[in-house]
Design goal:
Length: about 575
Amino acid sequence: MTAGGAPVATPAPGRRGPTALTAGVRRWWRRGALGQRLRRLRVAWGSSLRLRVLAVTTVVGIVALVLISAYLSERVRDTLYEQRVDEALADAATRTGLVQQQFDASTASTPALVQTVANDIVRRTQSSGSGAVGTLLRRSPTETPVTSLITFTVGTSVDLSPDLRAAVRETGAQHWQAVELGPAGSDRPGIVVGSVVAPPVVGPYELYFVYSLEPEEATVVLIQQTLALAALVLLGLLAAMALYLTRQVLGPVQLAARTAERLASGHLDERMTTKGRDELALLGRSFNEMADSLQEQFERLAGLSVVQQQFVSDVSHELRTPLTTIRMASEMIYDARGDFDAVTRRSAELLHTQVDRFEALLADLLEISRFDAGAAILDVEHLDVRTVVRRAVDLAAPLAERTGSHLSVEQPEEACRADIDPRRVERVLRNLLANAIEHAEGRGIEVVVRADARAVAISVVDHGVGMTTRQSEQVFDRFWRGDPSRARTIGGTGLGLAIALEDARLHGGDLEAWGSPGVGATFRLTLPRRAGVRVVHSPGPLVREEVVPELPNQLLGPSPASVPDLAGTPEEAR
């Protein structure tokens, strides 16, 4: 019973309800051969414009030809039928007049003589070759018969309907009716035409002539067969024409699509073959001109990129020598700051800090230039990833304590060994931990290690300000910041996460980010267990289930501020 007292129907024990039955039918349909064929056909229909054009053209052609053939067949049949009926009525009227004239000219004075004369007249009329296949002479049942002997059937016999006989008797005029010749079910069409004649002595009689429509029916069948054959020929020609047109029109379009795919995959020298001066040739030439322009732009941008990379690399190397001198001078000044006044002492401390930042930025620029030039290489060792994780966490623990955050590690008990470059993996983890500490706002930070047969995943989870989906897509961009107005407590070069992403990809792995404002953020590093294997699935967690309202402008992205080295080398926070 429901709350309102209305009964609720429940399935009987052991029986499947409507939902379960529907689900079972759907599973059977999906698994069945017919369902699979229909799904393949639906996929082919949606992916092939040529198939749709051919199918629509063929279906429309079939429908049009069927309608036209049916209309023509109906018109021809009706015309032949009407013509044959008119001929039969005219012939029956002529022959009825001849029979009446012969009766009028007869000198028979007794019923027996009238019967003999009627027999001769009817037989001569039937054998006159006028087209009738049968002649019937019947006594009118309303008249008092003088004799019941005059009733003839010559040729084909048919069953006369009472309505036809009544109409002939009552009006005395000519009437006709469609009949079936021969036994029931023989399907031999015909018509019977009746009228009244008056033999001498015996009174009025009903005279009927039977005509066959089989020749007309044969003509209609022949015309229908001819129309069907013509329809098949026209349908074949229509399909061939549609195929030709689709090849002529869709062929260049498909070629343009394939060429565009090749261009998108990096083959910038791919071009379309053009012939003629029509619209499709104009399309091909315009496409080739666009491809030429794109290739020129890409080559120019690639050249500028190479120049830019070379410039950054050269400047970074050239700055190392003067930076070493500046470093030595700043160290001397910094060590002697106790002898200075307060203003000079503060300046010495700022100089020392900014030299550290400049050195960190220079090191990161050199590292980025190695990635851009493809010169970065891995120094692979088969190690337990848990050891690298623990070392990175221990280095970040003092910084976490200063900000009030607590670091915890969740990892499997068995070893998670993989082919990794420990220096690069540790650098990635230090960057992720510094990033989490910066944005955790004193809350806890978890490091979760997961592994399967093919990959090892390390997730750094914080419960701080979080970030939006768009920010999680941009967080690995160089020098990007989500909110430039946010004050930083650690600082960074703005390149740490970009370098971390390149380190992950250099291993054949990936580095992903997820966040939700007010919930926190998760960064997941996935590494293959074997060098040279590309990661396709990560065993570690990324998206969390907590849902809170959006809090805009709560997250900082990469900034030009500096992140202090957690282990003696320059790093960066988010």
